[in-house]
Amino acid sequence: MSQISTYEWLDSASRRLGDARLLVAHDRPETALSNVYFALFYACKALLLHKDHDYKTHSSVIGNIGRFSSYRTRLDTGLPAQLQTERARCDYELVSYPRAYVERRVREAQSFIEASQAIVQ
Known about the structure:
UPF0332_toxin; HEPN_dom; 6 helices; HEPN domain-containing protein; mainly alpha
């Protein structure tokens, strides 16, 4: 199996975020929040690959993104972990989040992805 490139990860991140926007528009905030999480997970995979690191587990990817000072100064490196927790609560505890909250998370994720794209250019 071939290595997925940094740009492919970022493209997938953008697509997942677009899916999240559609889900919010169709009043599916919990499913949208899950897609927001995956969008940031993919962006984090891209950023780590950009530094020649390839972690396999979600917790390793999310946990290691803040290791790099260059990322901490340009990104909210705590956001992916927050979204990981929120996604798990939606999926496994059936917690509901208000639409406005999820819309804010979509905007935050958009900023994270845009900054990630600028970093890897």
